[in-house]
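U., I forgot to send this yesterday:
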Amino acid sequence: MDRQELGGRDAPPSVERLAKVIFAGGAGVGKTCLLSRLFSDKFDPSSQPTIGCDFQFKRYQVDDKSIGVTLWDTAGSERFSAMTSSYFRGAHGIILVYDVTRRDTLDALENHWLKEVEAYSTLPGAIKLVVGNKIDLADERQVTPEEGAAFARKHGCLYQEASAAASSDAPHDAHDALVWGLIVHIATDDELLKSSDHDKLQLEKNGPKRRHKKWGCC
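Result:
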């Protein structure tokens, strides 16, 4: 499929459809670093944990469809659970991130985050993607690719591994692949996309609203 991208917090929302994608997972798994690499090809290993939520806007061209995607970064600490849970509402795609060097972060997807999705996601057809991050730390790996893929299949999710720390000569090919497969699934599901029509009208009328947070690799 053909694709083009245009990104940034203040990108104009001139799109046919809007989709909302949430990054979720425990503290320190690298959600913010993945987004930072996706949008600016930067990685800061000294980043502090995220507080609150924020989004980035990116426009994708999937064949003849122009899809505007808001990619939401959420706090991983459970003390922010009440705040984070509200962001699952209306999400067309949910990216569940764990750290391949910490088995407990994969367990947390099953014991906490998938339950949050089930409880608060309002779109029955929402596409879920499980991402095993930090594969550059091969000597510290605790979860094999096979285990990650089996976990994703068990819960009806797509699966991919990634490394926010690893740069690329073509960052928007290497790191944008994280969300590209998810966007294709969303773009080809007309019923799922119809649910964003009201949001599109509101965004065009009011403009995107920004929320503030403290950035960090969370």
